[in-house]
Amino acid sequence: MRSLYGRFVIISAVIMVISSIVAFLLTNIYYHVYLKPYNSEKILNYALYIEHLYEEDSELNKETYLQSISNLGFAIYMVDEKKQGKRYGEGFKKINISDEAIDSVLNGNVYNGIENYPNRLFSTGFFDNTVANSIGIPIHTNGQHFALFIRPDIQQQFGELRIFYAVLLGLIIVISLICIAVATRFVVRPIQKFTQATQEITSGKYDLVLPEYRKDEIGVLAKNFRKMAKRLQKSEQTRQEFVSNVSHEFQSPLSSIQGFSKTVKTEELTELEKHRYLSIIESESQRMSNMCKQLLTLASIDQEELTLRKEFFNLGKQIRSIVFMSEWEWQEKDLAIEMVIPYIEIYGDKNLLYQVWTNIFTNSIKFTESGKSILFEAEENELEWRIAITDRGCGIPKEEIKRIFDRLYKVDSARNRNIKGSGLGLSIVKEIIELHEGAITVESEIGRGTTFTIYLPKNREGMGLDD
């Protein structure tokens, strides 16, 4: 995967290379169009002035004069009629002038090698210190003819170099800024899409168009963003279903209470009928009270307000207490309660785990047919405690097992239509087990029963044990 950092490095390098190439090309164009003709004309004027002084002043020491001119920053090459040449100064690195050019100058013509010097890509011929790249003028003195070739010494041409490199640097900066502005658009565009996506999510739209095709961090972010949007959508749907289900669950007992209350108030009933209706009202009220407590428990867990108060306690003693407290329920159905629990001291929140065993046991009583049994088992392993509760009830369909821990989800219709429940008990069980960093599994077979198995890890740090 190409990282975003790598992409920025590559883009920056490409921008610098492109900017340098384009700037150099434009600088060469600037040189050939403006700077080269300007320098050619300037040097020609210098040469003509030197010629004028050389020819007009007969008393002037010619050798001294030419040497003085070379000391001022000019490279000079003088050729006589016999094609004998002499250099003044150290400027010329190569004597590459043709005989035809020398003859032309000796015959009175001006040679402009700077203007006619071949153009080269990525180079400025003006800075080549050769005789061919110079100005040649004829000089006549004392009946003799000379060809004088002159050009500025490159080491003395700071002015021209400053102009050249200033233009080059300026072009590099301008082109780089333009390229960066264009490249930034491509970098900012996906960020703008994420901004738009957040606004769509805020308005309840979850079908997002994001750059998931990218192979860098933006692409990974887009994929994770879409996953987050799907989870938010699912969470919103769950919330709406939860509110709808809670309203329905409260509406049912409220309707019963309201209806039977009116009946008791408005109709002449026997004491037996009144007692029966009042018992229903009491039962529905208790059901609503239990549901409120369960909702408060779930709310505390969701808001992380529930603090675990862990301690050591006897598991067998706690489960026997639950069995005793629920005795009237399981005895009414003539159920047999079996317990295979050795003496085990487990470490956890005693009150919350009490609710776990109670919720599962209550479910087992509901869905176990009369005359059958419920089995409690427990064992201690090296790293965890395992507690299993098995009923001999009607079982849970396989396709329903993965949803039984969802809030307000009930499979009562598939098991027993006459059994009422809030659908919150197993949700609370799962939340409490996860608070203890444990796990819960379900095994069920239609017509044979269901086993809930809880695994609680031994938290050695929390128990104060050393490895």
UniProtKB/TrEMBL annotation:
Any GO CC annotation of this UniProt entry: plasma membrane
Enzyme Commission number(s) from the entry: 2.7.13.3
Localization per record: Cell membrane
Family matches, as Pfam families: HAMP, HATPase_c, HisKA
Keyword Nucleotide-binding part of the UniProt annotation: yes
Membrane-crossing residue ranges in chain numbering: 7-31, 163-188
Gene3D superfamilies, A to Z: 1.10.287.130, 6.10.340.10, Histidine kinase-like ATPase, C-terminal domain
Record domain Histidine kinase: where: 245-460
SMART domains: HAMP, HATPase_c, HisKA
Membrane topology: Multi-pass membrane protein
Name under which the protein is recorded: Heme sensor protein HssS
Originating organism: Bacillus cereus
